[in-house]
């Protein structure tokens, strides 16, 4: 309730539409709507304690023999990738209905694969992946989205694959084909049929899909829903830098004529809050003292090094502090009756 109240108050202060049915508009590129404020402007889970992405610290990875091989269905089918779209926040490729599935790998049952999309930085020389391994990020990260169970409240599972830059040009052929569509979908909302009969397998050469990390996290965009089963493969796909560069130089976050190029489409790594990352084999043993957390963007969260537990209150307190200082601004104080009315409107319907 308090979280909802804070989110609502913040949304109102930021002049966003405040209604449960209209999600607050989030972005990657402006301080007023970027990931730094999602926990304030966005509804639901963005300030939770099981958020993604995370920095995977291999020394803390525990062995889990349940992490067997996956079974992929339709990943080699030439008619499964149907449409490629510029959503204004990512490039998304939709899979045909009931064409692709994944099971095994300790997933609770059969999952529908619904789409994949990408996260990237500003060219192949800059980090653009969401997850990190020992603080290292890659130029891009590909997310295959999967769901299981009943339509209204499905269990979500994401397969994450890192994209690394190679010094070739136009390689591999599958990624040359994929990126050849970008010029046709330069503006947000543009989409086109994928006619070149690509398969998902074609796009993941060189990835041993029996070696991966597993942890429980969230969607990496608002509303940051938790309970997402994450799989991060250890191997990366090598894509030539010229093709990686096309993402940050070809597609725009709105109409081509009046908006920035789509760059830096990633969320910063989130605190681990005591969660355990597992893999087929444990990470290399460390002797001696726990090392300090590596140089990620998640500063300000100091956990107990033994349990990793951090009280979520620190997050709420930060939000409150921000709001209190905003509320003491005299011009906002003048608007207080109006704000109160809007707040009541926000709180009452739920
Ligand atoms: C492996 O699966 C078994 C049976 O479901 C479960 O009891 C056990 O806790 C699992 N092990 C790990 C490391 O998750
Ligand atoms: C991306 O890189 C280009 C040049 O490499 C630069 O001109 C541009 O300002 C950068 N964009 C962002 C958002 O950093
Ligand atoms: C897979 O998706 C279809 C709709 O595309 C749905 O009808 C079906 O129940 C889903 N199956 C699973 C296992 O989630
Ligand atoms: C899905 O719904 C059916 C019927 O409503 C129910 O029997 C089944 O247990 C549900 N499955 C899951 C995974 O929640
Ligand atoms: C690409 O070439 C540059 C300079 O020739 C080199 O520094 C870099 O390590 C190479 N990158 C890869 C991925 O081979
Ligand atoms: C995108 O451009 C349209 C038309 O110029 C404009 O009305 C709209 O506000 C823009 N949207 C964003 C999110 O900037
Ligand atoms: Zn994603």
UniProtKB/TrEMBL annotation:
Pfam families registered for this protein in UniProt: Carb_anhydrase (PF00194)
Physiological role: Reversible hydration of carbon dioxide.
Signal peptide bounds: 1-19
Family the UniProt entry places it in: Belongs to the alpha-carbonic anhydrase family.
Gene Ontology molecular-function annotations: carbonate dehydratase activity; zinc ion binding
InterPro entries reported for this sequence: CA_dom, CA_dom_sf, Carbonic_anhydrase_a-class, Carbonic_anhydrase_a-class_CS
Residue ranges occupied by any Alpha-carbonic anhydrase domain in the UniProt entry: 24-281
Enzyme's top EC category: lyase
Keywords: Glycoprotein, Lyase, Metal-binding, Signal, Zinc
EC code: 4.2.1.1
Catalytic activity from the UniProt record: hydrogencarbonate + H(+) = CO2 + H2O
Cofactor: Zn(2+)
Highest taxon, organism lineage: Eukaryota
Name of the protein: Carbonic anhydrase
The species this protein was found in: Onychostoma macrolepis
CC terms in the record's Gene Ontology section: plasma membrane
């Amino acid at each position: 309730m308090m979280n909802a109240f804070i989110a609502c108050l913040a949304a109102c202060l930021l002049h966003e539409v405040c209604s449960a049915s209209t999600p607050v508009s989030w972005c990657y590129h402006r301080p007023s709507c970027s990931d730094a404020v999602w926990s304030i402007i966005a509804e639901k889970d963005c300030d939770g304690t099981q958020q993604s992405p995370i920095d995977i610290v291999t020394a803390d990875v525990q062995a889990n023999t349940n992490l067997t091989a996956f079974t992929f269905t339709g990943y080699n089918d030439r008619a499964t990738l149907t449409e490629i779209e510029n959503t204004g926040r990512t490039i998304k490729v939709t899979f045909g209905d009931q064409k692709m599935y994944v099971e095994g790998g300790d997933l609770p049952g059969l999952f529908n694969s619904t789409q994949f999309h990408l996260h990237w930085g500003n060219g192949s020389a800059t980090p653009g992946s969401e997850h990190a391994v020992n603080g290292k990020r890659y130029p891009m990260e590909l997310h295959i989205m999967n769901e299981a169970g009943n339509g209204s409240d499905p269990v979500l599972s994401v397969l994450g694959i890192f994209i690394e830059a190679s010094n070739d040009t136009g390689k591999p052929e599958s990624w040359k084909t994929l990126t050849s569509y970008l010029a046709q979908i330069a503006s947000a909302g543009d989409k086109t049929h994928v006619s070149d009969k690509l398969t998902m397998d074609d796009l993941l050469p060189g990835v041993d899909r029996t070696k991966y990390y597993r942890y429980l996290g969230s969607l990496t965009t608002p509303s940051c829903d938790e309970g997402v089963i994450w799989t991060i493969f250890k191997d990366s796909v090598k894509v030539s830098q010229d093709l990686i560069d096309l993402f940050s130089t070809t597609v725009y976050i709105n109409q081509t004529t009046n908006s920035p190029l789509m760059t830096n489409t990633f969320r910063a790594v989130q605190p681990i809050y005591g969660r355990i990352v597992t893999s087929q084999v444990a990470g290399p043993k460390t002797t001696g003292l726990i090392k300090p957390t590596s140089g990620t963007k998640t500063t300000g969260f100091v956990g107990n090094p033994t349990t990793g537990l951090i009280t979520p209150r620190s997050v709420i307190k930060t939000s409150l502090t921000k709001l209190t200082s905003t509320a003491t601004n005299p011009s906002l104080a003048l608007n207080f009756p109006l704000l109160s009315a809007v707040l009541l409107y926000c709180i009452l319907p739920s």
